[in-house]
Design brief:
The complex is a heterotrimer of chains A (307), B (319) and C (252). Chain A has helices at 3-34, 41-59, 62-83, 93-115, 126-129, 142-164, 166-176, 178-183, 188-210, 221-235, 240-265, 271-296; strands spanning 131-135, 138-141. By secondary structure, chain A is mostly helical. The longest helix of chain A has 32 residues, at 3-34. Chain B is mostly helical and 319 residues long. Chain B has a domain at 18-239. Chain B is built from 13 helices and two strands, in the order αααααβααααβαααα. Chain B has helices spanning 3-26, 29-54, 63-78, 84-106, 111-131, 157-180, 182-192, 194-199, 204-230, 240-253, 260-282, 291-304, 308-314, and strands at residues 141-142, 232-233. The two termini of chain B are 14 Å apart. Chain C has 252 residues and is an alpha/beta fold. Chain C has nine helices and ten strands. In chain C, a hairpin with a 2-residue loop joins strand 4 and strand 5 (67-68). The longest helix of chain C is centred in the C-terminal third of the chain and has 17 residues, at 181-197. The relative contact order of chain C is 0.18. The chains are: A mainly alpha (307), B mainly alpha (319), C alpha/beta (252).
């Protein structure tokens, strides 16, 4: 077992984990405060990725493109909340699931219409394409380090916002008891809209970070969405801290699993089969963890709701 | 089932029965083939309606049982076991077992957790299917149709059509009886007020699990039929969007009516098949983008059209 | 068979910093109607939830007819003969009144793994259900969907469903809540009848009703019993007066 390989994979896992966190954070807040199951959160990841790729192309600058894509995604989040989600808060979960599923279908197709079905090129500027020897003897991609930094930065600022500011207090109050918060005179509607749009922006940011690594294409958000739901269940609905811990766990499980499961399976299967089955089964691990958490501690690791 | 429900059910089934002769008259054999698919998904949708519309269990991973049933047939066929007498009972067993295990864990939860965990299980099995290289993995694999004894021949499209129709009719009838039995009453009670059910003395877990398993088995049989129809199995059968589509069929047709799912399956698949062509007539080249219309339509149906096609036909509203 | 019907020992339940039940001791004798009163926030609802099995206490013990039921599920307790009605109507809205009661009857008529016969046609279920509806005064409304019943009829239905499970102990959580004077009168008469056949634990705000029906009264304040006794004893108790009755007289 090569320790350098392990470290590299751990970093990859961290990178994937913080990306997941960006998605899960918005989801858990929306879910925790508004009790809304939003399947279309993955679409916002996609929207962010597309905006970034396009704006980077137009402006010619990676940084500028990203900076412009953020408010653009925020705007989309606002529109979605105001036009569609407001009618769903009072509905039961089934209605929410179906309606947001309809949103997914709509967004995926809209993206296909506007940008075509083929995945978009999303490249990196030179100053981000290099490697850095953060682990002696193993150059690690600069961009991935950037993602880790951004993710941790967002996590830290979210923590500060939630723990230290008035907005954060409102969010925490809303997450633990919506009726009470409303009764205390908090403008719930505005809070909801802001929280959702904020979550949408984070999701978009995740998409922007992922674009250069994977591919910007219709439907790119959905696999991440499901993973994000699993993460917030493990972490505890409404809990940012829980989402953070669970996201990192998921990231590490997935990445390390992908590398080591095939090695493990080679003891039972032939190389080719092990190498295909391995990554697929690695993705199963996180679901097994979720099932376990649900059996032992159904409220999640860090439940936000009281009682 | 009210009189009206029974009449509509019989009317729909009768219409289905007339499709092959009509198709023959119009010389459009594809029509029969297409309606077989509608009926297979109608079976899946009816099975979901049982637990969703009557049991209140929002199972967002129901397509998993399509996959389990299909793969049972597929894997056996791949290994040379083509006998339907072995494949179908085994499909019942595997899908029943899968439903039992998934249900046993999922039903410990409720609300959104339940939705998510059923979704997660579906993903698990989907990835499992993808990882099975020898059975086609992501690409799936072609298989033979099931073999039975002399007069029954699944390769005969006409025969196969009526076998599927008979199965659909049987399942609708069975669900009808189940829903109105003591068990059905208990199941409906759990949907209406789980807390009260426990308070009056029902150990709700076992009844919900039983309902969940029954629905899983029915859907598994639909999967076995699907594998036969397409002569192909693929993990795509279990993809969570497929589960979403089955749920759409139930809602579109009218949830909790047992007949609605038939209307919904027909409606959805007919839309999927012909709306693109219609759109191409209106705006050439746009047919492939039918989803951009269907998405918002679905949202509108969910928000304003509760009762679905069934309510449209009967002018009634669901409680 | 002697001994109290219900015995609560040292019951504790906290929600974060809030002590909803704070070392509660209570005994309910067989055949009596034991009223539990107290100001809002005294922990009455939490108590009922722990007695019926919806909420697990943090500490303490609950004994029903000598049997420790502290960790038992709600449906097990129902099977043993403990029934409750809900303060906020909790019936099956999409079923008719008769269906509602019949379902409660069904719960105690063996298992429900019967998939074939039509339940609505079973006399075994319908007859007792109809009889119960008659008892509570809802016989004419038997076929009406519960969603369309009036509030007072809902309260009546609650009682009928509790009775359908053939209990020995009835936990009634504010059965008169929101009822007008005429309906209340009828409910009081019903409760008087039930008193003769069952042990009853009655949570109620209406003092007139409490003093008319109760054999014994326990006063709950901040999660503990500050007094238990007969009507006269409670009326005379200065502490009780101060904590509770004083406010009641002022507010009516």
């Amino acid at each position: 077992m090569d320790p350098i390989l392990l470290l590299e994979q751990a970093l990859n896992g961290l990178q994937f984990g913080v990306t997941l966190f960006l998605i899960a954070a918005g989801l858990t807040l929306v879910f925790g405060i508004m009790d809304l199951v939003n399947l279309a959160h993955g679409s916002l990841v996609m929207v962010g990725a597309y905006f970034a790729a396009t704006l980077i192309g137009w402006t010619g600058s990676f940084a500028l493109g990203l900076l412009l894509a953020l408010p653009a995604t925020f705007a989309v989040g606002l529109v979605v909340e105001i036009v569609v989600l407001r009618t769903l808060y009072q509905r039961d979960h089934l209605d929410q699931v179906l309606a947001t599923f309809g949103l997914i279908l709509f967004f995926n197709e809209l993206v296909r219409i506007l940008w075509g079905p083929v995945s978009l090129y999303s490249g990196l500027p030179d100053y981000l394409s290099g490697h850095v020897e953060i682990i002696p003897g193993a150059p690690y991609p600069v961009f991935r380090l950037l993602i880790i930094a951004v993710g941790l930065g967002v996590a830290a600022s979210l923590y500060l916002i939630v723990a230290r500011t008035r907005l954060g207090m409102l969010i925490r109050a809303g997450a633990s008891n919506r009726e009470m918060a409303s009764a205390l005179g908090v403008d719930i509607r505005l809070l909801f809209t802001l929280v959702f749009a904020l979550g949408a922006t984070f999701a978009g940011l995740a998409g922007m970070m992922l674009g250069p690594l994977t591919s910007v294409e219709p439907g790119m958000g959905e696999p991440l969405l499901i993973l994000a739901f699993v993460v917030i269940i493990i972490g505890g609905i409404g809990s940012i801290r829980g989402a953070f811990v669970a996201s990192l766990l998921a990231g590490l499980l997935d990445t390390i699993g992908r590398v080591f499961l095939p090695l493990l399976l080679r003891a039972f299967l032939d190389h080719a089969a092990a190498d295909t089955a391995g990554p697929a089964l690695a993705q199963v691990l996180i679901y097994v963890l979720m099932a376990g958490v649900l059996i032992v501690r159904p409220q999640g690791l860090f439940p936000a709701r009281g009682g | 089932m009210s009189r009206r429900q029974s009449l509509i059910a019989l009317a729909v089934l009768a219409l289905f029965a007339l499709v092959p002769p009509v198709a023959g008259y119009l010389d459009q054999p594809y029509l029969s083939y297409f309606f077989t698919r509608i009926m297979i998904f109608a079976i899946a949708a009816v099975s979901l309606d049982l637990i969703l519309g009557f049991g209140g269990m929002v199972s967002f991973g129901h397509a998993v049982y399509l996959g389990v049933g299909a793969y049972t047939v597929g894997i056996l066929s791949h290994h040379g076991i083509d006998s339907g007498f072995v494949q179908f009972p085994l499909a019942v067993l595997t899908s029943g077992l899968a439903a039992l295990v998934i249900g046993a864990i999922s039903i410990r939860t409720s609300g959104v957790y339940f939705i998510m965990i059923t979704l997660a299980f579906a993903q698990m099995l989907y990835f499992l299917g993808v990882s099975l290289e020898q059975y086609g993995g992501d690409d799936g694999m072609a298989i033979n149709r099931s073999e039975f004894v002399e007069p029954i021949d699944f390769w005969d499209e006409l025969q196969f059509y009526y076998v599927v129709l008979a199965t659909l009719a049987l399942f609708v009838y069975l669900c009808h009886r189940i829903v109105h039995s003591r068990f059905g009453m208990a199941l409906q009670g759990t949907r209406s007020n789980l807390r009260r059910m426990e308070a009056i003395g029902f150990p709700t877990y076992r009844y919900r699990l039983a309902g969940f398993t029954i629905a899983g088995v029915m859907c598994g049989i639909a999967g076995a039929l699907l594998a036969n129809w397409s002569e192909f199995v693929s993990p795509a059968y279990m993809h969570w969007t497929r589960s979403g589509e089955i749920m759409i069929m139930v809602i579109l047709g009218g949830i909790g009516t047992l007949v609605g799912p038939l209307l919904g399956a027909a409606g959805f698949l007919l839309l999927e098949e012909y709306l693109p062509d219609l759109m191409d007539l209106a705006v050439p080249g746009w047919g492939q983008h039918w989803m951009v219309l269907f998405g918002p339509v679905l949202i509108l149906v969910v928000l304003f059209g509760r009762g679905g096609l069934y309510a449209l036909l009967t002018g009634s509203r669901r409680q | 068979m002697s001994g109290p019907a219900l015995e609560i020992q040292g019951l504790y339940k906290s929600f974060g910093a809030l002590r909803a039940t704070d070392g509660l001791d209570l005994q309910v004798e067989r055949g009596e109607l034991h009223a539990v009163i107290g100001p809002n926030g005294a922990g009455k609802t939490t108590l009922i939830a722990q007695l019926s099995g919806e909420l697990a206490p943090d500490a303490g013990r609950i004994r029903f007819e000598g049997r420790d039921i502290t960790r038992m599920t709600a449906h097990r307790r129902s099977a043993l003969g403990l029934a409750r009605s809900f303060q906020i109507t909790s019936v099956f809205m999409n079923f008719s009144a008769l269906d509602n009661v019949a379902l409660a009857v069904q719960a105690h008529d063996g298992h429900s793994f019967r998939f074939w016969g039509k339940a609505r046609a079973e006399r075994r279920l319908r007859q007792p259900a109809l009889a119960l509806l008659q008892r509570v005064g809802l016989a004419e409304r038997a076929e009406v969907p519960a969603a369309r019943l009036s509030h007072g009829e809902h309260r009546q239905l609650e009682i009928a469903m509790a009775l359908a499970t053939r209990p020995s102990l009835l936990l009634l959580d504010e059965p008169m809540a929101g009822m007008g004077p005429e309906e209340s009168g009828r409910m009081v008469e019903l409760l008087r009848e039930l008193k003769a056949e069952h042990t009853v634990v009655l949570i109620e705000h209406d003092m007139d009703v409490v003093f008319e029906l109760a054999d014994r009264i326990t006063v709950l304040v901040y999660g503990r019993a500050i007094a238990t006794g007969s009507r006269e004893e409670i009326r005379a108790n200065a502490e009780v007066r101060q904590a509770y009755l004083g406010d009641e007289q002022a507010g009516g």
